[in-house]
Fold this sequence. Notes:
The chain is mainly α. The protein is built from 14 helices and five strands.
Amino acid sequence: xxxxxxxxxxxxxxxxxxxxxxxxxxxxxxGSPENRAYALWCLSTVYWQxxxxxxxxxxxxxTAALLIKVGYSGIIFIxxxxxxxxxxxxNLSRTPVRISYSVGVGFAISVWxxxxxxxxxxxHPWGFYPKAGFLHPLYLLFLTILVCHGxxxxxxxxxxxxxxxxxxxxxxxxxxxxxxYTLASVDFVVNYGANFYPFGFxxxxxxxxxxAYAITKHRLMDISVIVRKTLIYSVVTGTLTVIYLGTIALxxxxxxxxxxxxxxxxxxxxxxxxxxxxxxxxxxVQSFVDSKFFRQYVDREEKLYELxxxxxxxxxxxxxxxxxxxxxxxxLHPKTVALYLRARDGDGFxxxxxxxxxxxxxxxxxxxxxxxxxxxxxxxxxxxxxxPSEIGASLDTRRPSREDEAA
Length: 407
């Protein structure tokens, strides 16, 4: 007999989240080996958490013993599917993966042999839990070898990538997700008599969050998440709905004595507030979302229109400079950007506008400074050129002289 237990809720939440993530990753690229391997890793996690969810609600020892055998038949493959994902992610030889699955099948068979892998049950206030058999330590050794080798392969791969490469960031987040997931092995301590509720699910949720962030931020497994407009307008719509309903409720209460007029008046005020707040709220939400998650996204036409609309209202170069720096900062998110204009007295340059995260900028620069000298020597510093074949080679941005053209 089974009844819903409070201790079954965390495994249920974990199973649902990993099921959603695994299905999403698989559907985004069904033909990708790494996506399929990660989906298998998620599936094995779902299997583990779903079986344990039922186990913590079972009060009959024979039923619990059978459920543990069913559950461990899939749990055994968690480190194997992880290793499969790492090999596919790094595009390495699949031979070790095939050997790992073969060993896993052997352990899965031993689960159904009495006292080989599981040797009875522990009974705790929160539910039953399996006792480790004599093959269980060998499985832990096998698990350790797979995880350590997988992490070493990831570290070796990250050493060959430049720190600014997107692949570097992807591998880095995979390593962090792996290390956090590995901490879930604390649950195996309970197999050897420790008396605490197995909280390994919490580390798997951290791993889930890290992978979700890597998918959103660094297109892990080449997944591009199309949520920008959805996220922006969901937040805006939700906020305006609250404003609308709150306004109607407030004025309906204030004018409740005027039957027949309170609803119309409240709706009119609410509609006016929504019209007034929609555009400013959308801009603020869009700026926040872009700065946190979509820095690479630039709506050029919208930004140019925004800049031109502001510039035509300004009458001084300083005001125009502030508008330009603000648009550049909101669009490209540079760490430091500054604009210097020729001083009115003709002696050097003065700081018209800037945006920076740290440090300080000079309020005034003389005519004789490295930046001015560079622009004097390079009257056309930005020209369109083909990218050189050698990565990292410098670009000559100078306008060719007549002697160069003649040569």
